[in-house]
Specification:
Radius of gyration: 18 Å
Structural class: mainly alpha
Number of strands: 0
Distance between the termini: 68 Å
Order of helices and strands: HHHHH
Shape: elongated
Largest sheet: none
Helix content: over 70%
């Protein structure tokens, strides 16, 4: 078994898909980083974000960006992207339920 096949077999599905379909390994790494950052920003926005000033938001997203660099290295052999997708789906369902409850409470009063 060659070394590349061994590494691809060890990767989790999203990272493996990106590395097998992208024309270049560098582009695949940046694409994986972008996916992780976008999913992390979505999870942050859905679950934790409050109304803050522009400067504070920039600082938070810069720290999120640097944290996603670490997550990108972990995403090769751990289910980071898959976990972020599940977290985003759970938070989306929670926000939909919260929105429905607020709408029903407003209609009943």
């Amino acid at each position: 078994m060659d070394e590349r096949a061994f590494v691809y077999d060890s990767m989790y599905p999203v990272a493996r898909f990106l590395y097998e379909t992208m024309p270049n390994v560098d582009i695949a790494g940046y694409a994986l980083f972008a996916v992780i950052f976008l999913l992390s920003a979505l999870v942050f926005k859905l679950g934790f974000a409050r109304k803050l000033s522009l400067g504070r938001n920039i600082i938070i997203y810069l720290f999120l960006l640097t944290g996603c660099l670490v997550l990108t290295f972990l995403a090769f052999f751990l289910p980071v992207v898959e976990g972020l997708v599940i977290a985003a789906l759970i938070l989306i369902l929670y926000k939909i339920r919260l929105w429905r409850e607020k709408r029903e409470n407003a209609a009943s009063h």
